[in-house]
Amino acid sequence: MIAPILRSFRTVAAVALLTAAISGWAAASKPVWTLPLGEDAKWETLTDLGVLLVGTDSAIHCIDPDTGKVLWKNATFKKSNTMNAREIPGTPFLLCNQFSGMANSKSTFTLIDYLTGETEWTAPEVSGQYLGTIPVPEKGLAILVMTTWKDGKGQEHGTFLFAHDLATGERKWSTLLTKANGIPLHMADNSGKFMPRMDLSGYHDPVLEGDTLYLGYLGVHALDLNTGAIKWGVEFPPGDKGLKRTYAPLRIVGDVLYGAGGGSIHAINKETGATLWKSDRISEYAGLFKARDNAIVTQIEVIDDKIYARYGGNFSNGQTVMLKEPLGVVVVSAADGKPLYQDKKIEGGLTNLMALPEIGAVMFADGKELVGLSAGATVEEIFRVPIEFKRKMGGGDIAKIGLGLTGGLMGTVKAVSSSSKARLDVPVAITRQDGHIVVQGKQHLLGFDPVAKGQKWSLYYAAPSDAFATIAMFAVTLAASAQGNAQVAQNGSIMTSGGRQGMENIQNALDRYNRYTETRARKIGGSKSSGGYTYIITKLEKEHGGGVGLVGVNLGNGETDRRLALGDKEPKYLADEAAGRIFYFKGGDQIQAYEF
Q1: 283 to each of 98, 217, 289, 290, how far by Cα in Å?
Q2: How far apart are CA 476 and CA 535, in angstroms?
Q3: Do residues 19 and 529 touch, judged by C-beta distance below 8 A?
Q4: pLDDT (tens digit, 9 = 90+) per residue, 461-499?
């Protein structure tokens, strides 16, 4: 499985930018420490201040990543997940929600100092269904989102926002957002199938500007953080309420807020909520005379006086990944929403859009080509380069898949036998790494130089099983979602992996994980990364131990120069990018720490 290469303020999934330049193969043989947990880990993260947090069904554990010593364990919080145990940005605090009552019908909000394990405050219990937590440390607030019912004590029935003071836990205000069950929900992380928990994991995080928080759960609502008042609301449906992330992340430019849902792009005055314009249904641009389904507009990027938008692509419902058509890229005027450009040549898949300011372009890929559109006065194609994903095993053997890729991947798909098609792959995500672009499929990596408009290197590693191929698809699909949110995608990343990890809320993961980089680097002496690495779960060659393991790929040059034999059919791991350390969850209930 290829780890998604996410560059954001916080990132989840199997990616690492490690600190040492390595020549030749580097192997990690024996663990530097081992810690039995006694039960399976359900989630894990490295915090800003360098401690390892692990959630199991019975407790949250805090572990020193250097020694493996358990610093504290809190058994109050059972069956936690990354939506209800959230690190507060810029603080040493973990915001947790404790469930109780029949069918988890009661919630208690608690703030923990994750360095000491001490409880800072606990808010009064609330009856209702917990949906999510919104940390707003810039305003000293933590907002709990719940569907409540009348309790005879003044609480009404509906979907409410409860704001608490981060310092004291005091409730500052409560606001009715919508009627009970008014927001389409999606299956929560770690949820059981027999009695699934539903939450807000299918939505991008709200956007903060000044004293206003813009919520994207039902179109757009503007929330006054000082009073809790809903200043205005413009409601429009998601692209598909049964799938996650089918509202595009919100964009704010000047006085205008841009959003997308229901098959159209919306421009709204951010102060008044007045609709400035609504584009035609994107399905019409796709050449659909009367579409049964709206095109799902999943990303919009405002560049100068134009909006670049992509529609369709890979989406998750929390259980599987599916390709939703129509597929396309359109450019509309930011002034009135009128179409300026549309690409009707897209086939086989579609990645996120990636702005390339160094050449004044916006880039994307479909199943056969890498495409660059100009970001100048007029929209023109400035490159269209055939993709040549290559299959490379070990350190040097290269062989093209099937009959070759000179005609592009789509031509290969049509040419090869059905037994060979499973080895084919198409791009799903584009990320930026050290001055070049990395294009990801579920088992491929490709380096592309946007200035030279040429491929630098290409790799393929087979998934050890069909199950891992599916997991990889989850991961890169969510990578594309994260990359699409330019408001949070800037810095380095850390990584996790595992079957459920691909199904986790990517935006929640972005809000939890990636800030660790700089703080951790300072802790180990301020060393800087000299090359980016991603790790791939694959079958190792016999001379490197055989069986399932990790290989590390240097994203600067495409060389595979790290390996770790795991001997596990379904390995799960986390990487500390600054310290060059891998945390392997052997059997799910034991942590082994390895160093390269």
Answers
A1: 44, 22, 8, 8
A2: 13
A3: yes
A4: 766 655 555 544 444 444 444 444 432 222 222 222 322
pLDDT digits (tens, 9 = 90+) for 426-453: 677 888 876 778 888 767 788 899 889 9
- Give pairs for 253-257: CB < 8 Å, separation 24+: 253/302, 253/334, 256/334, 257/214, 257/220
What b/e sequence results for 438-476 when a residue is b if at least 16 CB atoms lie within 10 Å of its CB, and e otherwise? bbbbbbbbbbbebeeeebbbbbbbebbeeebbbbbbbbb
The strand pairing partners of 16, in sequence order, are 533
CB atoms within 10 A of CB 195: 8
What would the 3-class secondary structure string for 354-417 be? EEECCCCEEEEEECCEEEEEECCCCCCEEEEEECCCEEEECCCEEEECCCCCCCCHHHHHHHCC
Token look-up 């030749």 returns 24
Strands 158-165 and 171-178: antiparallel
Pairing of strands 264-269, 275-278: antiparallel
Structure tokens at 342: 């549309």
Amino acid of residue 571: P
Taking the C-alpha atoms of residue 70 and residue 266, their distance in angstroms, rounded to an integer, is 50
Determine the Cα–Cα distance for residues 18 and 426; give it in Å rounded to an integer: 27
Structure tokens that stand for 392 in this block = 């490379």
Query: Which range (119-123, 412-416, 441-445) has the least confidence?
Result: 412-416
Q: In what order do the strands lie in the sheet with 444-449?
A: 429-433, 436-440, 444-449, 454-460
